[in-house]
Design goal:
single chain, 122 residues, mainly beta, four-stranded antiparallel beta sheet, elongated
């Protein structure tokens, strides 16, 4: 059973910073891409940032320059450093990972965490 657990959300004033963390646990052969998504109230979930196993990153235009995604392959973890927070960044942030598990078929699938709430006050 693979699980992703996020942490680091909270209430912060506009202009502040947060660092979100996500760790994968369970029976894992390898982790390919990892990403952060967010979902604001009344809106669809959107991709915020992604990182490949080799460290190549990609960002949504709305966060480029303010958000930084990184990962620690030894810890099966991915991080999101969020700077210059804006009220529009208020959302539940979800971690996502493309994981291969060590079964006889080498099953590979997308796994999600439960989310961590970020609230930015103006």
């Amino acid at each position: 059973q693979v699980q992703l657990a996020e942490s680091g959300g909270g209430l912060v004033q506009a202009g502040g910073s947060l660092r979100l963390s996500c760790a994968a646990s369970g029976s894992i052969s390898s982790i390919n891409g990892m990403a952060w998504y967010r979902q604001a109230p009344g809106k669809q979930r959107e991709l915020v940032a992604a990182i490949t196993s080799g460290g190549t990153t990609n960002y949504a235009d709305s966060v480029r320059g303010r958000f930084t995604i990184s990962r620690d392959n030894a810890k099966n973890a991915v991080y999101l450093q969020i700077n210059s927070l804006e009220p529009e960044d208020t959302a539940v942030y979800y971690c996502n990972a493309d994981i291969t598990i060590p079964d006889i078929f080498g099953y590979r699938g997308l796994y999600w965490g439960q989310g961590t709430q970020v609230i930015v006050s103006s």
